[in-house]
Amino acid sequence: MDISEYLPVWSRLTEKEQDVLRKNASLHRVSAGEAIGGGAGKCTGLFVVTEGQIRAYLISESGKEFTLFRLLNRDLCLFSASCMMNSFQSDIMVKAERDSSFWLIPAEVYRTLMEESVVISNFTNEILANRMSEIIWLMEQHMWTSFDCRLAAFLLEESALEASDRLSVTHEEIAGHLGTAREVVTRMLKHFRSEGYVALSRGFVEIKDRKGLQAAYL
Amino acid sequence: MDISEYLPVWSRLTEKEQDVLRKNASLHRVSAGEAIGGGAGKCTGLFVVTEGQIRAYLISESGKEFTLFRLLNRDLCLFSASCMMNSFQSDIMVKAERDSSFWLIPAEVYRTLMEESVVISNFTNEILANRMSEIIWLMEQHMWTSFDCRLAAFLLEESALEASDRLSVTHEEIAGHLGTAREVVTRMLKHFRSEGYVALSRGFVEIKDRKGLQAAYL
């Protein structure tokens, strides 16, 4: 496993740039639940996921959470290196949802490469533009899509990620992903149960009627 | 008035790049209410405002609006050139709020410069990162700040932009800025009136007690 396989622009870099990356990138392992970076004052670097599942999210002053996106194999996270960009001021939290591994490129190394290489700089642009569209899409969902539809979409997505109908997730955690209160999640899940779409048990939500859920809410 | 004054990285460009920009940038005027670009399938180019006030906003399928940001003198808008970035998929609308002028750099010209110049590419990164922080901030406001506070902040901001206590704005327009329904705006404005913070008349909201409004909601 080599860093070269994880950067799509690798072949367009100069030998010197490749060398700098090989020398400075390091492979890290984190356990599920471990924070990786993000938040005020932290600046770990840029990382590329090689295994596992990592979550980037916002957290309010009162502790409410909202999931911005999940990083899976080969996904690249810039936010843990937001200090690289003077203009980026948000505090985005990053935490492993499962045991994960990633290549880490220290922020100052990436910044120097970005300032010198038009390939890396444009690659960074593409990543930023991509994340920005995702965030705008999420914002539109949050503003204009009713909560029942957002919850149904979340359960179906989660089921795809876990490759299972039985989701190990609490109402509190769902609330944190969707940026709402636990009570709101519980009420809607009970409604879904009354319609026969899901079964509920402590710490689990089980999808019982996938087609029905899709037909009603997507 | 020259394009060189409006691009902060001008002095770091090569003579050839400066030449390309001078030859291809053109000065445009639009009237208040005129659409500039944005939306599916349109790709005008990148522009820099030289005068006036331009609004970038989202619009839902059912026609609801939500203001992302305002562009004033020297502000630069990338979204009207979103086709320059393969990864950017959102439809952002851009419209003049007052009679405005701007320098327009055609999308393909900017794209070529960005692919060749590390200065322009990094400059673009900074703009993107900056917009992204603003959008995330806005999203946090939308999720975690109650509507009364958001409305109070909007009125005070609008008053600063218009340099007046008397704002020429309908409840419908406010709803469009804040991504909510007109009824919600009307109800809260009536509450503000009952507290003596504002006076309401057809097409106008007048701030009567600025300090009170700030103290209560900011």
Walk me through the structure:
2 copies of one chain form a homodimer. With 218 residues, the first copy, chain A, is α+β, with helices and mostly antiparallel strands. Chain A folds into 2 domains: 3-138, Jelly Rolls, CATH 2.60.120; 145-217, Orthogonal Bundle (Arc Repressor Mutant, subunit A). Helices cover 42% and strands 24% of the residues of chain A. The first copy, chain A, contains 7 helices and 11 strands. Chain A has helices spanning 15-24, 107-116, 118-144, 147-162, 171-178, 182-194, 210-217, and strands at 26-30, 35-38, 45-51, 54-59, 65-71, 76-77, 93-96, 100-106, 166-168, 198-201, 204-207. Chain A has a 4-stranded antiparallel beta sheet. In chain A, β10 and β11 (204-207) form a beta hairpin. In chain A, α2 (107-116) crosses α3 (118-144), α4 (147-162) runs antiparallel to α7 (210-217) and α5 (171-178) crosses α6 (182-194). The longest helix of chain A is centred in the middle third of the chain and has 27 residues, at 118-144. The radius of gyration of chain A is 19 Å and the shape is elongated. In chain A, 34% of the residues are buried. At the A-B interface, α2 and α3 of A face α2 and α3 of B.
